[in-house]
């Protein structure tokens, strides 16, 4: 091969080390919920799958939807709207779940599932399209993307919350 380009995960990168057109872009998934929009870095999402069934956990908080089986392991399902104090659907009303990689792997599973009703869209985000907002919360980072409000969930916090629920037996 006499080419100077190498394709890695669909992104062209120069072997010589010079910058490519995708260097300053982050692959993200965007989702629409009832009262907000969510942005997730693509690397944090293991899979988007259909929700089959959820096994409730007795005594769990309202935001803890239960456990679902994914690839032969129990994955906790989170109702993120409840964490954000927004009216939420019941877990059984979700059509899909986002299986997120748990960054610290502290819980019972290296994954966390977020219920969602819409199909996520893949987008490339450039830094100049993102602006900070005055809204602050522990559960999520609030940003403006192309002038619209988005939240980015704090996955480490979610993992910690799930771990406390799972280990309080």
Describe the model.
There is one protein chain. The protein has about 170 residues and is mostly beta strands. It has a single domain, classed as Beta Barrel (OB fold (Dihydrolipoamide Acetyltransferase, E2P)), CATH 2.40.50.180. It is about 10% helix and about 45% strand. It has two helices and 13 strands; from the N terminus they run βββββββαββββββα. The strands form four sheets. The chain has a five-stranded mixed sheet, with helices on one face. It has a three-stranded antiparallel sheet with strand order 4-3-10, with no helix packed on it. The longest helix is centred in the C-terminal third of the chain and has 12 residues, at about 155-165. The protein is globular and about 45 Å long. The chain starts with a strand and ends with a helix. Residues about 1-20 have low confidence and may be disordered.
CATH superfamily: CheA-289, Domain 4
Order of helices and strands: EEEEEEEHEEEEEEH
General form: globular
Instruction: Give the tally of structural domains.
Output: 1
Helix content: under 10%
Provide the β-strand percentage band. Answer: 35-45%
Mean pLDDT: 81
Which features characterize this protein?
5-stranded mixed β-sheet, OB fold (Dihydrolipoamide Acetyltransferase, E2P), 169 residues, 3-stranded antiparallel β-sheet, mainly beta, 2 helices, disordered N terminus
């Amino acid at each position: 091969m006499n080419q100077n380009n190498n394709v890695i995960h669909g992104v062209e990168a120069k072997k010589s080390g010079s910058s490519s057109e995708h260097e300053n872009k982050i692959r993200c998934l965007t989702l629409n919920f009832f009262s907000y929009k969510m942005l997730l870095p693509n690397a944090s999402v293991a899979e988007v799958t259909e929700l089959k069934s959820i096994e409730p956990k007795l005594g769990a908080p309202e935001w803890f939807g239960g456990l679902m089986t994914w690839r032969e392991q129990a994955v906790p399902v989170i109702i993120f709207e409840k964490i954000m104090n927004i009216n939420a659907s019941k877990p059984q009303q979700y059509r899909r779940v986002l299986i997120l990689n748990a960054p610290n792997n502290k819980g019972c599973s290296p994954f966390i599932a977020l219920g969602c009703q819409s199909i996520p869209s893949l987008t490339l985000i450039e830094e100049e399209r993102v602006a900070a907002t005055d809204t602050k919360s522990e559960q999520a980072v609030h940003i403006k993307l192309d002038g619209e409000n988005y939240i980015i969930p704090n996955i480490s916090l979610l993992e910690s919350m799930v771990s406390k629920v799972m280990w309080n037996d």
